[in-house]
């Protein structure tokens, strides 16, 4: 039986500067050290803005708090004349474990298509970062194609050329549920997560499909996380708005208690 360690990840988007990040991560680590709870079975991670990563690295390393972290985006290029871009190797040198790739806000506001997403996945893996590949359908896609066709197609294209041994995470984030306060139901999330796992099986084989974590994202809160986590193919959550509130985010990480 494959056991997948649940991952609860916070996408801060363009919130919290590096001073605020220091305070937040320190307090989060203290909250998670609370002896009354056992967190060893859940992995927590944050995705701060680029400018916070060095500070987050310092806090995480200084006290060996086991909070993972990563960037919200990465360049497809290794280095060179790409003003404003940040290379995967730079993130790796800050000990980032993860990087978000293809978040719906990158896809819609910055025109990232599946080819760009695939190139970013490859750039991340090339620097031993774990890409958190975000996929999801818009309300219009849902109406036209049903819930899983678009996310499955996005994932399949993002995995082109990826080795079956690669360490990746998939985040299913229906665009209509992001920031809307209207989360998918656990059953809806499970249905698409199961389809995404089949797509993983097809692209990367059984071992990768069984080991790869699939997160649900879209208006996850402390009061709805437990329902998602009960679903067999949902292995964690990518949390936006609620990850900016320390108590709320800590409660989401504590979904088992
Ligand atoms: C996100 O943007 O990844 C997200 C899930 O946002 P929210 O939790 O605010 O819906």
Automatic annotation (TrEMBL):
Keyword Oxidoreductase belongs to the record: no
E.C. no: 5.3.1.1
Pfam short name (any one): TIM
GO molecular function: triose-phosphate isomerase activity
Signal peptide location: none
Chemical reaction(s) catalysed: D-glyceraldehyde 3-phosphate = dihydroxyacetone phosphate
Enzyme class label: isomerase
Keywords associated with the record: Cytoplasm, Gluconeogenesis, Glycolysis, Isomerase
Pathway of action: Carbohydrate biosynthesis; gluconeogenesis; Carbohydrate degradation; glycolysis; D-glyceraldehyde 3-phosphate from glycerone phosphate: step 1/1
Active site residues according to the UniProt entry: 103 (electrophile), 173 (proton acceptor)
GO biological process: gluconeogenesis; glyceraldehyde-3-phosphate biosynthetic process; glycerol catabolic process; glycolytic process
Location in or out of the cell: Cytoplasm
Source organism, top-level taxon: Bacteria
Listed GO CC annotations: cytosol
SUPFAM superfamilies reported for this sequence: Triosephosphate isomerase (TIM)
Binding partners and assembly: Homodimer.
General function of this protein: Involved in the gluconeogenesis. Catalyzes stereospecifically the conversion of dihydroxyacetone phosphate (DHAP) to D-glyceraldehyde-3-phosphate (G3P).
Protein name: Triosephosphate isomerase
């Amino acid at each position: 039986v494959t056991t997948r360690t649940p991952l609860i990840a916070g996408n801060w988007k363009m919130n919290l500067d590096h001073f605020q990040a220091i305070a937040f991560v320190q307090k989060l680590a203290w909250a998670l050290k609370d002896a009354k709870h056992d967190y060893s079975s859940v992995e927590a991670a944050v995705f701060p803005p680029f400018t916070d990563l060095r500070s987050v690295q310092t806090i995480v390393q200084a006290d060996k708090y086991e909070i993972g972290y990563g960037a919200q985006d990465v360049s497809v290029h290794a280095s060179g004349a790409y003003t404003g871009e940040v290379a995967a190797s730079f993130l790796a040198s800050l000990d980032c474990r993860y990087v978000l790739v293809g978040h719906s806000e990158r896809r819609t506001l910055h025109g990232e298509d599946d080819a760009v997403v695939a190139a970013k996945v490859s750039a991340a893996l090339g620097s031993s970062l774990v890409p958190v590949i975000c996929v999801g359908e818009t309300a219009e896609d849902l109406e036209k194609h049903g819930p899983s066709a678009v996310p499955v197609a996005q994932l399949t294209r993002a995995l082109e050329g990826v080795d079956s041994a690669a360490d990746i995470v998939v985040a299913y984030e229906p665009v209509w549920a992001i920031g809307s306060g209207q989360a998918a139901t656990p059953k809806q999330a499970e249905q698409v997560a199961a389809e995404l796992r089949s797509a993983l099986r097809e692209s990367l084989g059984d071992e990768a499909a069984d080991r790869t974590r699939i997160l649900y994202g879209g208006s996850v809160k402390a009061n709805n996380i437990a329902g998602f986590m009960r679903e067999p193919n949902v292995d964690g959550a990518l949390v936006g708005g609620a990850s900016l509130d320390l108590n709320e985010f800590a409660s989401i990480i504590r979904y088992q208690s």
